[in-house]
Amino acid sequence: MTVAPTITTPRLRLRGHTMADIPPLCALFASERAEYMGGAISAKESYRWIAAEVGSWVLHGFGSWGVERRDDAAFMGQIGINQAHEFPEPELGWVLLDAFEGHGYAAEGAQAALDWWWRAPDHHTLVSYIHPNNARSIALATRLGAQHDPDAPLPQGEDSRETVVYRHQRPL
Length: 172
Hints:
single chain, 172 residues, alpha+beta, five-stranded antiparallel sheet, 8 strands, 28% helix, globular
């Protein structure tokens, strides 16, 4: 059975989710901060979403990691490579709890996830589906080297008013 590998960076540990991750993520997904992730959802829906991303490791060989700070093991959010049923391609996504934004943690963790993804010889591309008004996520995708791909297929049922695609390419 495939489980999430642990990845360490100078400041972070990306590791498999634990039950302790669920309450803070459910609170985040129920808040106004979920505006660019399809809007606030219930704890029941959040739990199913997180469980699907954990289960993705077994089904796809990739999924989401819980992110914690190495120096104090504080849970910070999640970074993942997922392909939900409605996604035409695997997607790199990130979300941090309020207290941890603005410190470069998302960039550090997302870069570590990208580096992990590129280790597989058959992985040549990856996308990030982003709400067009989410300037911070667009800036991060660009910082990671992704470029807007207006011709990429969108998640099923979405249009360009809801989602833009930023494409990450395997480094040469």
